[in-house]
Design brief:
mainly alpha
Length: 169
């Protein structure tokens, strides 16, 4: 003990300080340390829960983004299908219009040909009628006059001149 005294340590004071420290430590542990640790554990739990919720929200956001992208892709494909169908319908309408125009043109050409043939037949009929009339007139003139060659030639020329006048009218 004398060694402790020579160092300037008073044993009763040291023991009382150690006892006081242990009592203070026990009180602090009961009063401050346990509530503080409880509060820190609760805070840590809240932080952990917030991090889990954040992670969950991130996962949900990623899923929502994937779903949105999937729907956009589907909508884009559907839009492209609609565009393709519209283009196809337009092509079909264009082909039908061409076909209708071609049919109408063929019908008009056929009608024009038949009208031309009718007019030609009418003209030929008219020509035959006129030729028959001219022939009858020529025969009448020949019968009326003598069978003189010179007279006969004059009659034919006269009939031809008359028929040329009729044709011009």
């Amino acid at each position: 003990m004398e060694g402790l005294i020579s160092l300037g340590i008073d044993l009763p004071v040291l023991i009382s300080q150690i006892v006081s420290f242990l009592i203070l430590f026990g009180l602090l542990r009961l009063v401050a340390y346990k509530p503080l640790m409880k509060m820190l554990d609760e805070r840590s739990g809240r932080i952990q829960k917030s991090m889990e919720q954040t992670e969950f929200i991130k996962e949900q956001a990623a899923l929502a983004e994937k779903e949105t992208q999937k729907r956009l892709d589907e909508a884009s494909k559907e839009g492209q299908r609609l565009i393709d169908r519209a283009a196809q319908a337009g092509d079909e309408m264009k082909q039908k219009a061409k076909e209708d125009a071609r049919n109408e043109a063929e019908r008009l050409i056929t009608r024009a040909k038949s009208e031309i043939e009718k007019e030609r037949d009418d003209a030929i009929g008219e020509l035959r009628k006129e030729f028959a009339d001219i022939t009858i007139k020529a025969a009448e003139k020949v019968i009326e006059s003598s069978l003189n060659k010179e007279t006969h030639r004059k009659i034919i020329e006269k009939v031809l001149d008359e028929s040329a006048g009729i044709q011009k009218n």
